[in-house]
Write a structure and sequence with these properties.
Elements: E1 3-5, E2 11-15, H1 18-21, H2 34-39, H3 57-71, E3 75-79, H4 82-85, H5 95-110, E4 114-120, H6 126-129, H7 139-154, E5 160-165, H8 167-176, H9 187-210, E6 216-222, E7 225-228, H10 233-245, H11 247-256, H12 261-267, H13 278-282, E8 288-292, E9 296-301, E10 310-315, H14 332-345, E11 350-354, H15 372-390, E12 395-401, E13 420-423, E14 428-431, H16 433-444, E15 446-448
Parallel strand pairs: 2-3, 2-12, 3-4, 4-5, 5-6, 6-8, 7-9, 8-11, 11-12
Antiparallel strand pairs: 1-15, 9-10, 13-14
The structure holds 5-hydroxymethyl-3,4-dihydroxypiperidine.
5-hydroxymethyl-3,4-dihydroxypiperidine binds at residues 17, 20, 166, 292, 354, 401, 408.
Length: 449
């Protein structure tokens, strides 16, 4: 069996997010976030769970970094809880909160692991939500001010920054469908939130450049492989509606400085109010785009398919099955996504900032999990990345989602995405088979053919 070797310097990592792993939701001066408020309401989260304790990473950070070092990670992607740094979202800085991330960055560097830091992985300050949240245009400035505080403290050491993680999820699930906080169901507010998230992104990029920091800055966008279910005109049009109003909304704005006609024609008066200069700000050059990819979805035109008159169905390659969240498994879909970004958006540098699967764990008496299913999933997708590079896509790194089993938002703790098992009773971390396998991939800088 041959080996598919990656380019020298390819960045292998693992990802997490603050709310999903830190716990200590109200410790050391941290303020309340929208996720704190939402999870503390009845009937919002499976089994009434919350990230109050999560994986207790806030208190176990040093040991978690030692674990990453043992796995040979070259980079670790984490997010900052805005309300640890600025409990009210703006104004007074909380030194203990900022100090936590300062220590985390130092520990990572001591271990030879490059920090990759996301400023917004959804846990927006509740105090600012009370003023309209992302649907208030001022949110763009609140975000840029927060970014400045963090850049000034960590900008000398952090190599890679992302402004937002998956802004589509924040705007769409938060303000259009109400599945996620703040639980609003209003498409007009949702499209306004999308525009303000993008404005905040552009402003934060400007703040970063003005500070003359040495690292790179970009954004992380979710990108399933969205394909029409058939070649019919109707399905292709439905697929365009979905793509350009969901993921494509962000790609088009950032890389082309526009919202696509397929979106504006469809949403009509719900379109965000765009002022002179907005699109120039939003489309400031960035150093990379992070792609979070999990599955392929086939789109069918459907007059009963909600606002977009379309339904999406998870697609699995023959014999591949589904994950624990009923997401399809189709590794070639990742190659297709990367080719699409190359062709549509000028082949920007790309990092796969999340890829992984939730699978049921069957631990033995010692808590060890032989997760062959996860190994297969990861191997297939890593091969797909290699294929994309061979096809000329500028892919520079790959991060597994996730380092640890953690709080999977509205699904609570049931879905396990980690390559390391979290025993929530004892908080013990137990590397699964996939963690050992991934360590070998990193060491070899490649995967078997
Ligand atoms: O857990 C999430 C993460 O926070 C964002 N991207 C998708 C993951 C799996 O659902």
């Amino acid at each position: 069996m041959g080996h598919l070797i990656f380019p020298e310097g390819f960045l292998w990592g693992a990802s997490t997010a603050a709310y999903q792993i830190e716990g200590s939701w109200n410790k050391d001066g941290k303020g309340e976030s929208v996720w704190d408020r939402f999870t503390h309401r009845k009937y919002t989260i499976r089994n009434g769970e919350s990230g109050d304790d999560a994986c207790d990473h806030y208190r176990r950070m040093a040991k978690d970094v030692a674990l990453m070092e043992a796995l040979g990670l070259k980079s670790y992607r984490f997010s900052i809880a805005w309300t640890r740094v600025l409990p009210e979202g703006r104004g007074k800085i909380n030194p203990k909160g900022l100090g936590f991330y300062d220590r985390l960055v130092d520990k990572l560097l001591e271990a030879g692991i490059a920090p990759n830091t996301t400023l917004n992985h959804w846990d927006f300050p509740q105090a600012l939500e009370d003023q309209g949240g992302w649907s208030n245009r001022d949110s763009a400035d609140w975000f840029a001010d927060y970014a400045r505080v963090v850049f000034e403290r960590l900008g000398d050491r952090v190599a890679m920054w992302a402004t937002h993680n998956e802004p589509f999820i924040v705007a769409f699930l938060g303000y259009c469908t109400g599945d996620f906080p703040p639980g609003v169901c209003d498409y007009t507010r949702g499209f306004a939130a999308a525009h303000h998230l993008l404005l905040g992104h552009g402003k934060a990029v400007d703040v970063y450049r003005a500070g003359k920091h040495r690292g790179k800055i970009g954004i992380v966008l979710d990108h399933p492989n969205i394909v029409p279910a058939s070649d019919s005109k109707e399905d292709r049009a439905a697929c365009d509606r979905i793509y350009y109003s969901n993921q494509g909304l962000y790609f088009e704005a950032i890389f082309k400085g526009r919202y696509a006609k397929a979106m504006t024609d469809w949403i009509g008066p719900m379109a965000p109010s765009v002022r002179a200069g907005d699109m120039e700000l939003i489309s400031r050059p960035i150093d990379f785009v992070g792609i979070n990819h999990y599955s392929t979805q086939a789109v069918t035109a459907n007059t009963r398919g909600g606002f977009f008159k379309a339904t999406k169905e998870e697609y699995s390659a023959p014999g591949m099955g589904k994950t624990d969240l009923a997401w399809g498994i189709n590794p070639p879909g990742l190659t297709q996504v990367l080719a699409g970004i190359r062709d549509r958006y000028g082949n920007p540098p790309v990092y796969i900032t999340e890829n992984g699967c939730a699978l049921e764990d069957n631990p033995d008496a010692k808590g060890y999990v032989e997760d062959w299913g996860r190994v297969d999933y990861l191997r297939g997708h890593i091969r797909a990345v290699h294929r994309a590079i061979a096809d000329g896509c500028d892919v520079r790194g790959y991060y597994v989602w996730s380092l640890l089993d953690n709080f999977e938002w509205a699904h609570g703790y049931a879905p396990r995405f980690g390559i390391v098992r979290t025993d929530y009773k004892t908080m013990r971390r137990i590397p699964k088979l996939s963690a050992h396998w991934y360590r070998d991939v990193i060491a070899a800088n490649g995967v078997d053919e």
